[in-house]
Amino acid sequence: MTAEWLLQRVRGLADMSLRRRALAVVLAQADPAVAAAAAADLLERAARRGDDPELAGGLACFVHAVADLDYAARRALYIAARARGADAVARLLFDASPATAETEVVAKLLKPERPLRQRGRPLTLGERKSLARSGRRDLLMHLLRDPHPDVVRILLDNPHLTERDAVALAASRPAVPEALAVVADHRRWSVRHMVRRALAFNPHTPVHVAMRVITTLGAADWREITVDPHLAESLRAHAADLLRAGQPRRG
Description:
elongated, 2 strands, 251 residues
């Protein structure tokens, strides 16, 4: 089974959310061996032809869709991918990670009250969430440093947020891993290369989330990832596999 089997199921759907949901349904109902073979072919073709927008879009859709599968469907697809030696596909089906931030650090970042400015009074989470809906740039610039996932989620939906702001959120550290996962899953910003790159190189991004993000990058980024000592060994190995997949076939 080839990548075309997956691509034809989302072709014609312009909205990313609809494509993602449609593909998740297909993956949950399909023969796992068929789906795994198609996914492996899609990943390999996208790695070799990174300038093909349909392949890149299809791979991005697959990466998001697998996150929506329930445990049984994900496990069946994982077993099928491992059985055919498609380890790069199998890694995309993990839904848990080792901790990427210390518990004490995360607890401190999630304190219920936090000042907006260095010498300002502490604001409650509710107050900060309300301010995150503001159109004032001065407030948004301060809130970009707020690590709480609920604040980050509202900021990402704010129409006044720029790509540069979204990159800053994706690159922030120390960070709450859950907040970075929110950025990675956002329908508007997750498609931006610089946002995905910032998430991939942020050691606080949950490993299973970073694995999926890395898959949607390109050879230049993969080469950097393979030698980045701040990233998990499994991420460096995944990037190396993607580089090998992108090499022209011999013979």
